[in-house]
Amino acid sequence: MSEIKKSDNAALTMFILGYYQSSASNPAVGLEPLSNEEVNATVADVVKKNPGHSGLATLQNELKAQMDNAGQGNLVGKQAPEFTMPDVNGRPVALSSFKGKYVLVDFWASWCKPCRMENPNVVAAYNKFKNKNFTVLGVSLDQSKEPWIKAIKADKLDWPQLSDLKFWESPVVALYGFEGIPFNVLLDPEGKIIAQGLRGADLESKLAELLK
Asked: Could you tell me the residue ranges of all domains in the chain?
């Protein structure tokens, strides 16, 4: 990761940094995540090298989205906080309406690169277990409807999708206490959280364990 400090390209630097942290959050990858001090120092260096970069705030948000879930509170064992949010057609949908099934509540957004990279894993898990009392509920932090709908179609996300289009101001952020996306919680049929932050092979492995 020392090479990243030599780059003068803000977008490339932030993307590589975020992707590294996201990958390092998976124990199977065998990478050691950078400390908060190292991340902050790298980001500060990017800002210094690109003082007039108009998109740097967005890039910083995307980096935040790619960070691992170390800052998330442990929700496992707790009842999932209830919320109601509009679906793609504007109809209000309550989380509690999915009781009786195992539900992966998947927090994501069309603008979130690591979310889009993780989506194929979620699609694979959904297709494998959708006939075993399992579904996915997508909750997006998008700000406008068009890119959200476009991403749903492009990534073939064939499960219910909700969004209040309030970006990080959405009440679900505080309700579930996450600081970056992608983030998810897995609920049992009673609505209790039995796992969180499942990605890649870990998601399919956990579902295979539960849905034999």
From this structure: 2-66, 84-210
Strands 161-162 vs 193-196: parallel, antiparallel or unpaired: unpaired
Positions of the chain with pLDDT under 70: 1-12, 14-41, 47, 50-73
DSSP state of 89: T
| 85 three-class SS | strand
- Beta pairing, strands 161-162 & 134-140: parallel
- The β-bridge relationship of strands 134-140 and 102-108 is parallel
Domain 84-210 homologous superfamily, CATH: Glutaredoxin (3.40.30.10)
Residue appearing with tokens 């948000």 = 61
Q: Which two tokens stand for residue 169?
A: 């101001």
Q: Which of 71, 65, 49, 70 is nearest to 17 (CA)?
A: 65
The answer to whether the pTM exceeds 0.70 is no
